[in-house]
Write a structure and sequence with these properties.
With 612 residues, the chain is mainly alpha-helical. It is built from 22 helices and no strands.
Length: 612
C-alpha cells in the first residue's frame, strides 16, 4: 500500500494548500504597492514640483522635497512594530485588511491635491503620512501571515517572494515614477487606486486567521519615545542640510543640535522603558538570538546603502549625465527611470532564485555573498568618470540589483525563522523598522556627505566658470556663494539654475547671444559641477562600500547551528514551559524552543508552527 502524501502525513488539509497561495498572492501585491509608493515619488519629484508650482530654488523648499521622501519612511519605521503587535493581539488578518483600506483611501486623496505652492506640498506630505500608516499595517503583518500559512520547507520561498515583491516595488517605483510623471504627476498616485480597491475587497473575502492571538496591551510610553525620538533625529538632519550662519550646512544651528541630542536621549529612554514594561513595543529579548540580531544589523546597513545609492544615482542621471547627452531637463525623469532598468532587472532576476536556494542550502552564505557583491559595485561606481560609458554603468547597477536580491530573501527568511510563532508579528515589524529606518536615514546621510564633498570646490568652480562667460565678478560671486544644497537640489529636480538665477536681474541681457546660449544650454551647468560632484560621489560610494562590508560581517556572524542564543525568548514559547511540537502535535525530539533553528542556514523551522 502506497504511503500517503507527505502533506497529509503532516496533517495539512488540501484547503490549506490553496489558502497559502491566496495569502501569498494578496500579501505580495500589498507589499509591492507599499514599497512602490516609497520610491515612486523619488523620481517623479520634478513633475510634482512643477505640478504644484513650487520654485525649486526658493529658500526652504528643500524641506518639502526631503519630507515627501522621508516622511513616508519615517511613519513606517515608527509604526510597523506597533501594528505588528496589534496583529498579534487582535488578529494579523484584521489589521492587514484595515491597512489595505487606509492605503487605498489615502491614494485617492493624494491624486486630488486642490492647492498650489507650499500648501499643495503640505497636502501631499500629510496624505502620504496617512498612506504610510496603511502601508505599515500591510507590511508589518504580511510576513507573519505567510509564516503562519506556509510549511517550513516552503516558508523561505514564500518569504523570499514577499521580500522580493517589497524591494522589487522599490526598484520598479523608480521606473514607474518616470513613466507616469511624463503623462501627469497625479498618475503616480492614480496607479494605486484600482489595484488597491480590488485587493482590499479580495483580502476581506478570502484571508482568514490561521495563527494564535495573544492578549496584552500597547506600550504607549515606548511608542511615544521611539516616535518622537526618531522624528527629532530626522528633523535635525533636515535642518543640518540647509545653510546657517554663513556656513554651507546647518550643523552649527542650535535647533538642529538640540533636536538631534534630544532625539538620541529619547531613543535611549525608549530602550530603558522597553527593559521595564511587561508588554514592550520591541521584544529586546529577541536580540539574544544571533540570527535575529545579526540579520537585522546586516539589513539595516544594506538599507542605508541601498536607499542612499538610489538617491545619488537619480541626481547623477537627471542633473548631469542626461543633460550632457542632449536630453532636455523636462524629460530627464522619464529617461532616468528607463536607464535605471538594469538595477530593477538584476534584483528581480536574483531575488526569487535566492529565496529558493536559501531553502536548500541555508541563508548565511547567500546573504553574506550578496552583501560583498553589493559593496564591490559601490567600488566600481566610485571609479566611473562623471560622463561614463552607459554599458559599464548598466553592468554595475545590474550587479548591484543582483546583490540586493541575493541578500534580501535569505536574510528575511533567517530573521523570521529564528522567532517563536507568537512573536512573528512583532518580529516582522521589527525587521521592517530596521529596513525603513535605514531608508529614511539614508537620504539625509547621503545628501549630507554629497554636500560635504561639493562644498570644498563648488563655489570657486561656479564663480570662475561664470566669469569666463562674461558674467560680472559681482554677480558670479553671488551665484558662487549660493549654498551647495541649492545646486544639488536643482540637479535632483532636473532644473537648469543658470537661467533661473541670471535672467531676473538682467544679467543675461548684457551678454552676447553666444554667451547666453552657452550659459542656458543643457551642458554648461552639468559640465560646471561635474568636478565637485565627482568629489561628492567618491565620498558617498566609499561610505556605501563600508556599509556593505559591515553587513557582510554581520551576516557571517549570524551563526551556523543551534545553541542557547537561538532559543525562544520572552514570556511566551518555551519560557512558558510549553515544548515545541512537530506537525502531528507530538513533542519534537530534543526541542527546547518553538523557534530553535535546526538547519545550517538558520532557516525557518516547523517547531514554531503549532498554531497553523
Amino acid at each position: 500500500m502506497a504511503d500517503p502524501p507527505k502533506t497529509r502525513a503532516l496533517n495539512r488539509p488540501a484547503g490549506d494548500d490553496r489558502y497559502k497561495w491566496t495569502a501569498l498572492t494578496n500579501t505580495t501585491a500589498a507589499v509591492f504597492m507599499s514599497a512602490l509608493d516609497g520610491s515612486i515619488v523619488l523620481i517623479a519629484l520634478p513633475a510634482i514640483f512643477r505640478g504644484v508650482h513650487l520654485d525649486p530654488l526658493a529658500p526652504g523648499n528643500i524641506a518639502y522635497l526631503l519630507w515627501m521622501i522621508m516622511g513616508y519612511r519615517l511613519v513606517q519605521a515608527v509604526l510597523v512594530v506597533t501594528v505588528g503587535r496589534l496583529g498579534d493581539m487582535y488578529g494579523r488578518v484584521r489589521i492587514y485588511n484595515s491597512g489595505f483600506a487606509v492605503f487605498t483611501f489615502a491614494s485617492v486623496l493624494l491624486s486630488f491635491d486642490p492647492f498650489d505652492g507650499g500648501h499643495g506640498a503640505m497636502w501631499l506630505i500629510a496624505w502620504r503620512v496617512v498612506q504610510a500608516v496603511g502601508g505599515s499595517m500591510l507590511t508589518a503583518n504580511s510576513a507573519a501571515i505567510l509564516t503562519d500559512a506556509f510549511p517550513q520547507e516552503q516558508r523561505g520561498f514564500a518569504l523570499g517572494i514577499n521580500q522580493v515583491a517589497g524591494l522589487g516595488g522599490m526598484f520598479i517605483g523608480l521606473v514607474a515614477g518616470g513613466l507616469l510623471s511624463a503623462w501627469d504627476w497625479r498618475a503616480v498616485f492614480w496607479v494605486n487606486v484600482p489595484v488597491g480597491v480590488f485587493f482590499t475587497l479580495w483580502a476581506y473575502r478570502t484571508l482568514r486567521e490561521t495563527g494564535k492571538r495573544g492578549g496584552g496591551r500597547i506600550d504607549w510610553w515606548g511608542n511615544i519615545t521611539f516616535a518622537v525620538g526618531l522624528s527629532a533625529v530626522l528633523i535635525a538632519i533636515t535642518l543640518g542640510l540647509q545653510p546657517y550662519g554663513g556656513h554651507t550646512m546647518g550643523w552649527t544651528n542650535p535647533l538642529a543640535d538640540g533636536m538631534i541630542a534630544g532625539g538620541l536621549v529619547l531613543l535611549a529612554a525608549f530602550v530603558a522603558i522597553e527593559k521595564r514594561v511587561s508588554a514592550p513595543m520591541i521584544q529586546l529579548s529577541l536580540f539574544r538570538q544571533r540570527a535575529f540580531t545579526f540579520g537585522n544589523m546586516a539589513g539595516l546597513a544594506i538599507s542605508i546603502g541601498r536607499g542612499g545609492m538610489q538617491f545619488v544615482l537619480i541626481i547623477w542621471l537627471q542633473g548631469i549625465w542626461l543633460p550632457l547627452h542632449g536630453y532636455d531637463y523636462s524629460d530627464t525623469p522619464l529617461w532616468a527611470g528607463i536607464f535605471m532598468l538594469p538595477l530593477t532587472a538584476g534584483f528581480l532576476a536574483a531575488g526569487p532564485v535566492s529565496g529558493y536556494l536559501s531553502d536548500r542550502f541555508g541563508s548565511r552564505g547567500l546573504a553574506t555573498g550578496g552583501a560583498l557583491l553589493f559593496g564591490a559595485t559601490f567600488l566600481g561606481l566610485m571609479l566611473l568618470p562623471i560622463n561614463f560609458s552607459y554599458w559599464i554603468f548598466a553592468v554595475l547597477i545590474a550587479l548591484n540589483g543582483v546583490a540586493s536580491g541575493m541578500f534580501a530573501s535569505p536574510n528575511s527568511s533567517s530573521i523570521m525563522g529564528s522567532v517563536p510563532a507568537q512573536l512573528r508579528g512583532v518580529a516582522s515589524g521589527m525587521r521592517a523598522t530596521f529596513q525603513n529606518s535605514g531608508t529614511a536615514v539614508s537620504i539625509g546621510v547621503f545628501f549630507s556627505l554629497m554636500i560635504a564633498g561639493l562644498a570644498g570646490s563648488l563655489p570657486h568652480t561656479l564663480t570662475s566658470g561664470l566669469q569666463q562667460q562674461g558674467v560680472s565678478a559681482h554677480v558670479a560671486t553671488q551665484v558662487g556663494s549660493l549654498p551647495p544644497v541649492s545646486s544639488l537640489f536643482a540637479a535632483q529636480l532636473g532644473v537648469n539654475p543658470m537661467r533661473h538665477l541670471l535672467q531676473p536681474g538682467g544679467t543675461l541681457s548684457h551678454l552676447t547671444a553666444a554667451q547666453q546660449q552657452n550659459l542656458t544650454g543643457s551642458e554648461f551647468f552639468p559640465n560646471l559641477i561635474s568636478g565637485p560632484f565627482h568629489s561628492g560621489l567618491v565620498i558617498v560610494f566609499a561610505f556605501g562600500a563600508v556599509l556593505a562590508l559591515l553587513a557582510a560581517v554581520a551576516s557571517a556572524l549570524r551563526g551556523t547551528g543551534t545553541g542557547p542564543a537561538a532559543r525562544a525568548p520572552g514570556p511566551v514559547g518555551a519560557a512558558n514551559g510549553v515544548p515545541s511540537r512537530d506537525r502531528t502535535g507530538a513533542p519534537a525530539a530534543g526541542a527546547t524552543s518553538q523557534s530553535e533553528p535546526s538547519d545550517p542556514g538558520n532557516r525557518p523551522t516547523s517547531t514554531g508552527e503549532t498554531t497553523t
